Automatic annotation (TrEMBL):
InterPro entries assigned to the protein according to its UniProt record, in alphabetical order: AlkB_hom8_N, DNA/RNA_pol_sf, RT_dom
Organism domain of life: Eukaryota
Domain called Reverse transcriptase: residue spans: 1-276
One Pfam family named in its UniProt record: ALKBH8_N
Family annotation (PROSITE patterns): RT_POL
MF GO annotations: 2-oxoglutarate-dependent dioxygenase activity; methyltransferase activity
Source organism of the structure: Hemibagrus guttatus
Name of the protein this chain belongs to: Reverse transcriptase domain-containing protein
Lineage per the UniProt record: Eukaryota, Metazoa, Chordata, Craniata, Vertebrata
Coiled-coil blocks: none
């Protein structure tokens, strides 16, 4: 994949915002959200969407045409951050990575110090231009990030305005995307080392064969150098490493050094909402999912007391409880123990008693979601795992993936191929 030439995409057409888009956006606003520095409530925008959408559409389009963002749109009040929420149902794009016999893997979970706050607009503009983003859009984004104004509110008191020309605004929906584009050039140059990125979550995975860690440590040095050149600061105190070594009687491995500090070695790590252990066992993760789901059962019981219709109770269960139980089920279900699966299934049985109707079992949810995800990967030639879904000469079945260990056998790709080859279950 590193050697494939990427064709230049066709030029983008100028962005135009329609009144209908603004109207739909205003009508979807959450009225419980607090007002901004302008004291205009979301409730006002929502209830007056028909009258205000033409005005705001004109303002937005004028801003795009002139590549200038009104100053009042760039004024914000910083708030203390709540605990970082993890995201992604699928642990990023599923990538076929396994450890051959006699090898081991070192995984570095990188932490940045105030990642979004360190973006340099001038550097970002150059990177956007290299990605063939139209010059007008580059200028608009640069203006959006430059000369922003902030003040702090404490009770009824407010501080003086401070002008800021670095970083991306706190809570801005553009911030994760801009950071991803900003770090797009940070890649791995060695075949045995992968650099995975999801917004500001960066992970370096090195496959170590014959005890040679030079490529892995070299990519670490390249990462440190790249961050230094692009105004990103690595937090060596919060960066942790996990070593997955399934060899018999492995010798202790020396710690890696990041920014002159030894990196802490972890037994487990909470990665994008999922707890991963060095043994690739899922008891800890399932225990956490069960606890969260049981806590949310309280709200389902309260809604039942208010005599809500069964359909609304099912919708609540699907959105609030089932989403927890199946996060991300395609990764861990096949390797989970029967005891752990039973814990999660008991939550579903409890929900069935409260709602008064049958619900999809954990097995059914796993099969349907695995098949859907596998079919999506098989239909996407650009996906790294697409080549694993190869048809037999008959064209009726897929070629099974050979496995040597139960750990590999119970991972996503071998089980997904088997599910696609088996007779389909009744769709949910």
């Amino acid at each position: 994949l590193h050697t494939l030439a990427t064709p230049h995409p066709p030029p983008l057409t100028p962005l135009t915002i329609k009144e209908e888009q603004v109207n739909r956006l205003f009508k979807r606003l959450n009225t419980r959200k607090a007002t901004g520095p302008d004291s205009v409530s979301p409730s006002l925008l929502k209830h007056c969407a028909n009258q205000l959408s033409p005005v705001f559409a004109d303002i937005f389009n004028t801003s795009l045409e002139t590549c200038h963002v009104p100053t009042c749109f760039k004024t914000s009040v910083p708030l203390s951050q709540s605990p970082k929420r993890q995201r992604s149902q699928d642990l990023m794009t599923t990538d076929p990575i396994w450890i051959p016999p006699g090898s081991y893997a070192r995984i570095l979970f990188v932490d940045f110090s105030s990642a979004f706050n360190t973006i340099v607009p001038a550097l970002l503009r150059d990177k956007l231009f290299q990605l063939n983003v139209p010059d007008s859009m580059c200028s608009w984004i640069t203006d959006f990030l430059t000369d922003r104004r902030q003040f702090v509110r404490l009770g009824t008191h407010v501080s003086d305005l401070q002008h800021i020309s670095t970083g991306s605004p706190q809570g801005c929906v553009l911030s994760p995307l801009l950071f991803s584009l900003y770090t797009n050039g940070c890649t791995s140059g060695h075949q045995s080392v992968k650099l995975l990125k999801f917004a500001d979550d960066t992970t370096l995975i090195g496959l170590i064969s014959d005890g040679d860690e030079s490529a892995y440590r070299g990519e670490m040095d390249r990462l440190v150098s790249w961050c230094s050149m692009n105004n990103l600061e690595l937090n060596s105190l919060k960066t942790v490493e996990m070593i997955m070594d399934f060899r018999k009687d492995p010798a202790p491995l020396p710690p890696v050094i990041l920014c002159d500090s030894p990196v802490t070695s972890a037994e487990s790590f909470h990665f994008l909402g999922t707890t991963i252990t060095k043994e690739l066992k899922w008891e800890q993760n399932i225990r956490s999912l069960t606890k969260k789901a049981q806590q949310r059962m309280y709200f389902l019981r309260q809604l039942k007391k208010f005599l809500l219709p069964v359909k609304m109770l099912v919708n609540f269960y699907t959105a609030i409880i089932e989403s927890i139980l199946t996060s991300p089920i395609t990764v861990w279900f096949a390797a989970a123990t029967a005891r752990d699966k039973a814990k999660l299934q008991r939550v579903i049985h409890s929900a069935e008693k409260v709602i008064g109707c049958s619900l999809s079992s954990l097995q059914e949810l796993y099969v349907s979601r695995s098949r859907r995800r596998a079919a999506k990967i098989a239909a996407d030639p650009s996906h790294p795992g697409n080549e694993l879904f190869r048809s037999l000469p008959s064209g009726k079945r897929l070629r099974s993936i050979k496995t040597r260990t139960s750990r590999h056998k119970n991972s996503f790709f071998p089980t997904a191929v088997n599910l696609l080859n088996s007779a389909p279950l009744t769709p949910r």
